[in-house]
Design goal:
single chain; mainly alpha
Length: 106
């Protein structure tokens, strides 16, 4: 995977994680998952946790060795967490309202 592919993959991981954790369109799915178990309720609220599983699932297509699969999972999780924190900071700066602007739409 070259640098361009890595950037696209990391952004795709963030996009899928955002969809699962925050997008309005996925709110009914989040509510059902949260109601089904405490594990899923905690998972779907955490960008790092959800990002790990999204990255692990998508890395299956590009990684051949199991150790690299796990490392890609952590790389994707970290990028999702960092991107979300940066976007929340940017939104807070633009609105002046603090970090509550970017929340899940349930």
């Amino acid at each position: 995977m070259d640098g361009r592919q890595l950037c696209v993959w990391l952004l795709a991981c963030y996009g899928m994680t955002f969809l699962l954790c925050s997008a309005k369109i996925a709110a009914p799915v989040r509510r059902r998952l949260a109601a089904s178990s405490a594990f899923f309720a905690g998972l779907i609220e955490c960008y790092f946790c959800t990002g790990f599983w999204v990255a692990l699932g998508t890395a299956v297509w590009v990684v051949q060795q199991p150790v690299w699969l796990v490392l890609h999972g952590f790389a994707g999780a970290t990028s999702c967490y960092v991107l979300d924190a940066a976007i929340r900071r940017l939104e807070a700066t633009e609105t002046g309202d603090g970090f509550d602007q970017h929340t899940t739409a349930d």
